[in-house]
Amino acid sequence: MALAATGYFRRLTRRLTEDIDQLDAEEMIVESTQASGAQRACDCSRGEEVTMYGRLRSVETSARASAAGMEAEFFDGTDAVTLVWLGRRRIAGIETGKKILVRGRLGARNGLKVIYNPYYELQGD
Fold it and tell me: Superkingdom of the source (predicted)?
């Protein structure tokens, strides 16, 4: 019994003192491996058709009328990918912190991974 309690307190202490980003990354890696057909962002390269599972870290809209669009930073625990929806100012359900499954062709913009107009499925909170 004391041994089980020690393990519990060790895990609790780790969760309270470890970096939140590191904990989030570990959680997303575990969940993405369970998602059907999901690939890790770090293993994907430009030009590939990809399916990834992760969380939206941030969502921004462009205020300029000439460049209407939405951008979101997607993170799956291994790497970040920018998701861009052209011609959209708002998409219901696309909010910071939401977990989604995305599909699309991976490209590059300024040396960073990007998917334009991805297909997405909102996942559980």
Answer: Bacteria
CATH number reported for the structural domain that contains residue 69 in this entry: 2.40.50.140
- How many structural domains compose the chain? 1
Nearest to 27 by CA among 7, 55, 52, 57: 55
What type of residue is 91? I
Model-level pTM? 0.74
Task: Write the pLDDT tens digit of every residue in 7-43.
Answer: 777 776 766 666 666 666 666 666 665 656 788 888 8
Q: Give the separation between CA 68 and CA 82, rounded to whole angstroms.
A: 16
Can you count the helices (H) and strands (E) in the chain? 2, 6
